[in-house]
């Protein structure tokens, strides 16, 4: 439950907060042959997930 104080603080500060199960992001758009495991690749995958499901 380490995420809860962070999410609550961000929400209280006026940010939109969405807590997403890591498996949903892991399985999202897994269409590449190469498995990139870098901070940049992970950040892009999370950003693309957020943009795709921003309306929900």
Question: What is the topological layout?
Answer:
Blueprint: H1 3-12, H2 22-27, H3 39-52
Explain what this protein looks like in three dimensions.
The protein has helices at 3-12, 22-27, 39-52. The protein is elongated and about 40 Å long. The protein starts with a helix and ends with a helix. It has a domain at 18-56. The protein contains three helices and no strands. With 56 residues, it is an all-alpha fold.
The dominant shape is elongated
Query: Per DSSP, what share of the residues sits in E-state strands of 2 or more residues?
Result: under 5%
Task: Provide the succession of SSEs.
Answer: HHH
Count, helices: 3
Helical/strand content category: mainly alpha
Indicate the mean pLDDT: 85
The helix content is 40-55%
Distance between the termini: 23 Å
Describe the sheet with the most strands.
none
Radius of gyration over all CA atoms, rounded: 13 Å
Number of E-type strands? 0
Q: In terms of per-residue confidence, which ranges show pLDDT below 50 for 5 or more consecutive residues?
A: none
Protein traits:
mainly alpha, 56 residues, 3 helices, elongated
Sum this structure up briefly:
This protein is mainly alpha-helical and 56 residues long.
């Amino acid at each position: 439950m380490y995420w809860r104080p962070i999410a609550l603080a961000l929400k209280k500060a006026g940010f939109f907060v969405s807590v997403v199960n890591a498996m949903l992001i892991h399985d999202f758009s897994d269409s590449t042959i190469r498995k990139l495991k870098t901070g940049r690749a992970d950040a892009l995958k999370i950003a693309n997930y957020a943009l795709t499901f921003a309306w929900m």
